């Protein structure tokens, strides 16, 4: 079976990409992911806030010894002065590119366009094959309107595309008033890929201790329905490649995303739960499914169940379908 695909103009041997996480934050982990069969990796995100905090803490510690020390400060911090903040991340990206034979995509998460462009240009120089811009902004009580935030995000993506030579993708959340229209606006900036969707942190409450649970949390297989729903509507309406993300645990979710029209999909939570070896299982079952259905390549079925190709129910992705489901709610069977 030929499961090759193209994403952001990059040729991939299959549609499975290991998404940004701590599992893609070391060279050892990256090698394991590649050996398991992933077609590409997204490095752990470079967060603007993290670097700002590191720089603040460094300067605070350095200042304790600065009075009267002068050049001798290098004695206390011989290596930190050379490789700190973004420098260590750039070195990691360069090492990752040297260590792997599959495409390496760097991930950037910033809250202003100037910093995003700066990081993008410096990451480009490490030799990475592409960039993934994470444009999520947490809601706050301020005077900035939702429309202003969207304009800022789109402008940041546009400036980044203009500043670098390598392909750029944007990873968004579904929390826009009109997600489809917003994606089309991002598409017009010249990006080469759109990732649906980022899964922002959400606090939980422990009712026993009456405290906030601020620990990381994994997605579930049911979460894949949201990116699949939007992928099915966006297929053949934008120039950018579509990468489905969130809730893809096994082959059925992966295949569903491809049937909806995704060029590829990212996995993350399933690797925490099942280990990097699960990549082999997903790809093997994808190939088995293709063989069973008589598909020789992904192009034969990709987008088959998108809004533009689905046969028999033209309202499948529309509000009318939602109303119809509510009318038939008494038919829902639970086990």
Please give a quick description of this structure.
The protein is an alpha/beta fold and 335 residues long. It is 41% helix and 14% strand. It is built from twelve helices and 13 strands.
Describe the protein's topology:
Blueprint: E1 5-7, E2 10-12, E3 16-18, H1 27-36, E4 40-42, E5 46-47, H2 48-66, H3 73-76, H4 86-99, E6 104-109, H5 113-124, E7 130-134, H6 146-163, E8 168-172, H7 179-187, E9 193-196, E10 204-206, E11 211-213, H8 225-234, E12 241-244, H9 251-260, E13 264-267, H10 269-274, H11 278-293, H12 319-327
Parallel strand pairs: 3-4, 3-13, 4-6, 5-6, 6-7, 7-8, 8-9, 9-12, 12-13
Antiparallel strand pairs: 1-2, 10-11
Helix pairs in contact: 5-6, 8-9, 9-11
The biggest sheet amounts to: 8 strands, parallel, barrel
Q: Unreliable runs, pLDDT <50, ≥5 residues?
A: 54-65, 68-83
Overall pLDDT score: 87
Q: In whole angstroms, how far apart are the ends?
A: 37 Å
- What is the rounded Rg? 22 Å
Content of β-strand: 5-15%
Encode the helix/strand succession as letters.
EEEHEEHHHEHEHEHEEEHEHEHHH
Question: How does the overall form come out from the CA principal axes?
Answer: globular
Strand order of the largest sheet: 3-4-6-7-8-9-12-13
How much helix, percentage-wise, in residues? 40-55%
Secondary structure class reads alpha/beta
| Number of continuous helical runs | 12
The number of strands is 13
Characterization of the model:
- The protein has twelve helices and 13 strands.
- It is α/β, with parallel strands linked by helices and 335 residues long.
- The model is unreliable at 54-65 and 68-83 (pLDDT under 50).
- The longest helix is centred in the first third of the chain and has 19 residues, at 48-66.
- An eight-stranded parallel β-barrel has the order 3-4-6-7-8-9-12-13, surrounded by seven helices. It has a two-stranded antiparallel sheet with strand order 1-2.
- The protein starts with a strand and ends in an 8-residue tail after the last helix.
